[in-house]
Amino acid sequence: FRLRCYAVENLVTTDDVLRSLGSNWDGLVEAGKKWYEENPKHQDRDKLLALLSSSDRGRNTKIKSVRQLIPAILGSRAPWEVVVGQVIGRISGEVDEGNNNSIIDYIGRDVLVALGLLEVNSSTDGDS
């Protein structure tokens, strides 16, 4: 199985993870731009700005150097792995099927079914 994004750290930009951090994409962009202005000497500030400016949340780009900044910018002390893991642990079959920025879309329904985190149902049989 392959993820439907560049790497597992890209899951930190999904709606589900951002919501668990008490925000959304627009909130991250706003907070991230403020952080950018307040941290002129940080080595990864330009990479963060590139992510925040991307049209697809950097879904298919390497964000390894800024993955830890996202929870911190949104006020969380938890490592990104913990935040993403908690959201994965709460995945259920009730999702917005049209949301291209959901954690289910980034991981891929077929992967989640194979892991037993989602059940195959009649509306998705054969679609994975």
Description:
The chain is an all-alpha fold and 128 residues long. It is 43% helix and 0% strand. It has helices at residues 15-20, 25-38, 45-53, 69-73, 80-89, 103-107, 109-114. Helix 2 runs antiparallel to helix 3 (45-53). Residues 122-128 have low confidence and may be disordered.
Radius of gyration: 15 Å
The tally of beta strands, per DSSP, is 0
Largest sheet: none
N-to-C span = 11 Å
Order of helices and strands: HHHHHHH
Q: What percent strand?
A: under 5%
Structural class, by secondary structure, is: mainly alpha
Report mean pLDDT, rounded to a whole number: 90
Helix proportion range: 40-55%
What spatial form do the alpha-carbon principal axes imply?
Answer: elongated
Low-confidence stretches: 122-128
Number of helices: 7
